[in-house]
Amino acid sequence: MNKKELRQKYKRLRQQLSQKEIEDKSLAIANQLLKMDIWNKTYYHIFLPIEEQKEVNTEYILQILAGKDKEVVVSKSDFKTTSMTHFLLTDNTKIKKNEYNIPEPINGLKVPPEMIDVVFVPLLAYDKQGNRVGYGKGFYDKFILECRKDIVKIGLSFFEYEDKIDNIFKNDVKLDFIVTQKNIY
């Protein structure tokens, strides 16, 4: 399937999930992450979920990061340049939804991309090779290219993989891992 078809399919599948299913699956994904050898790092970039899109609830991962005393980084999107600015998430960080319902920091300490060690990546679909389908604007592909080469890229998904995504582009960044409620790929 191509990216457009996969976007439609997985948006539809997500919309069928109940709030309880989202919470249960999100908690299971967080528990899977605890099995991974990624917790010796310092800076972790995480997305704050768009509830209307029924994304993985990253609150459970935030709790793990807080419990392990890690530095958490969240982003603000610029839709004119399809770029993101990254901020340290602290008790003083104010979060507000933008016009696309993306929760974003409105203030805070900026963090350069090269400081980030691990990035949790939102996605709609993915394949066995680590290719992902997002919403199609390329925000995360651009962002990851600004990071160090050794950054750990982890996609989070409620669903299992597709065999192959047909229209992969050279600027599409592959993920190192994809974590679902039952598997770590």
Automatic annotation (TrEMBL):
The keyword Disulfide bond does not apply. This is 5-formyltetrahydrofolate cyclo-ligase. InterPro entries: FTHF_cligase, FTHF_cligase-like_sf, NagB/RpiA_transferase-like. The keyword ATP-binding applies. Keywords: ATP-binding, Ligase, Magnesium, Metal-binding, Nucleotide-binding. It catalyses: (6S)-5-formyl-5,6,7,8-tetrahydrofolate + ATP = (6R)-5,10-methenyltetrahydrofolate + ADP + phosphate. Belongs to the 5-formyltetrahydrofolate cyclo-ligase family. One of its GO terms (molecular function) is 5-formyltetrahydrofolate cyclo-ligase activity.
